[in-house]
Specification:
By secondary structure, the protein is α+β, with helices and mostly antiparallel strands. It contains 3 helices and 5 strands, in the order E-E-E-H-E-E-H-H. Strand 4 and strand 5 form a beta hairpin.
Length: 151
């Protein structure tokens, strides 16, 4: 199979994505991606492991952070780059969901002409990520069918 015909298994290109979970112990799981990367997470309690909701917020922040970083760091390397993702866990009737999701970028660039250009470009980079580039937040905004089945 030619290189361009191979399905993507990660990165920013198009193509299928997949992760698998293995139960480690009660409320604790190991996620593995197709490239062999692993991430331990859990259901809360006293464990410092991320909960699924925290992973969701991390995915939204991380997706946009990558977009914004790639766009702005071509102009100037940031001296600070922090992103906070937060939301309210709610229950409407019997349904749990997150609402009021907000992603805040705290990005600083060095003084000088390049830093000035990067600062000027930052709001547009954030808007591009929100409106077009970030697959995670775009999926939330658009909505996606979720099918669960027994294997």
């Amino acid at each position: 199979m030619a290189q361009q015909d191979q399905p993507e298994t990660g990165g920013t290109g198009l193509g299928h994505r997949s992760v698998s979970l293995t139960r480690l112990e009660h409320g604790s799981y190991l996620a593995t991606n197709e490239r062999g990367g692993t991430l331990r997470f859990g259901g809360g309690g006293e464990s410092p492991d991320f909960t699924p909701v925290e992973l969701f917020l991390t995915a939204m922040a991380g997706c946009s952070a990558i977009d914004v970083d790639f766009i702005t760091s071509r102009i100037a390397e940031p001296v600070r780059f922090d992103v906070t993702s937060e939301g309210e866990k709610m229950r409407d009737g019997v349904e749990n969901h997150l609402g009021d999701i907000e992603i805040t970028f705290t990005v600083r660039f060095p003084e000088g002409a390049e830093g000035d250009r990067a600062r000027e470009r930052l709001p547009k980079a954030i808007a591009q990520s929100r409106d077009r580039l970030c697959t995670v937040s775009r999926t939330v905004q658009r909505g996606a069918d979720v099918h669960m089945r027994e294997g």
